[in-house]
Amino acid sequence: MTTTANVLTSPAPVTPIREAYLRLKDEISQVREADLITINVDVQGIITSMRGRMGQIMAFRDRLATDLPTIDPASFDKLEDYTLATAYTHGQYRATSMPSESFQAVLLEAIEYRGILLADASALHQRGIIDGSKLGDLKGANGYKSTAFDLLTLYTLLRESWDRITGRTALTLDELERAGIVADELMLAAGIRESGPQMMTTVILNRQRAFTLFAQSYDQVRRCIQFMRWNEGDADDIAPSLYAGRRRKSGSELNPEEPAPAEATPAPAVVPTAKVADKVENHVAPGLPGANPFGS
User: CA-to-CA distance for 99 and 128, rounded, in angstroms?
Assistant: First the structure.
């Protein structure tokens, strides 16, 4: 029988999502249950949005040395990995609780994306814009494993070449990132379906721990950007709140007062028992006299 540990760490195609998870696996496992942040947002939507905004957000990393020299840049440096690791654990979560009809839906979506990405990659290769030598390794959409491997290969090829192909294809970055998520979900679903229901509790806690690291890092990054863009007033356009449009307490917004609508994926019956520690403090708004925008 496949064990929980084997499913979470067994060999699989190395994608940016999986690579980030493996780099952070030990750190994720060490997040205490008492520190976990409740997941009451659309994780998939946040991940897709974050990956599209990452370049713009990271442009502020180099300004820390001059604008905020006393701030530790770790939140910026690890934000992308936290985002990708959260995407990976969210895929595990969806795969674990995925009924047969949902699995079939993911497979059909993967087949559709495989066709789209293959057509674009082939055209770009023929025009000499990318090296399409890996296209010869594709196995064909004749099963869920072959489809997942092919989609992962196509995603990696196009994502690594994105700077060269942007504007030369009808494919959008959001579509490409979605294709990568679908490929990982299909691969994970295939493995987890073979391992049995004992995965449920481990996967739920794993996702919540990864999301906690991501949310804490992003909260600090937003504070920095709010400070640097205070006069321009466009910080929320660059790095929007995870809880945009909802009432929240002053200070850190990691624990909003109102619960979000339920996610598209039904919550499994087994849920973590840990409660989120409320660490919110009232403080002066960032940028105003007496403010300390980086305090917890």
Answer: 43
Maximum CA extent, the chain: 64
State how far the Cα of 150 lies from the Cα of 157, in Å rounded to an integer: 11
The backbone region for 98, taken as left when phi is positive above 0, alpha when psi lies in -120 to 50, beta otherwise, is beta
- Top pLDDT among 279 and 6 is at 6
CB-hemisphere CA count at 13 Å for 142? 3
d(CA 29, CA 27): 5
Q: In residues, how long is the chain?
A: 296
Q: What is the DSSP string of 181-198?
A: HHHHHHHHHHHHHTT-GG
Q: In angstroms, rounded to a whole number, what is the distance separating the alpha carbons of residues 177 and 193?
A: 24
**Other beta carbons less than 10 A from residue 265's beta carbon:** 16
Q: Radius of gyration (Cα) for the chain, nearest Å?
A: 20
Question: Which residues does 164 contact at the CB level (< 8 Å), separation at least 6?
Answer: 129, 130
Asked if residue 157 lies in contact with residue 134, where contact means CB atoms within 8 angstroms, the answer is: yes
pLDDT (tens digit, 9 = 90+) per residue, 38-95? Answer: 999 999 889 988 988 898 999 999 899 899 999 999 999 999 999 999 998 988 887 7
Hey, how many other C-beta atoms are within 10 angstroms of the C-beta on 163?
7
Taking the chain, what is the end-to-end CA distance rounded to the nearest angstrom? 45
* CA distances for 276 relative to 27, 30, 60, 251, angstroms: 19, 16, 30, 16
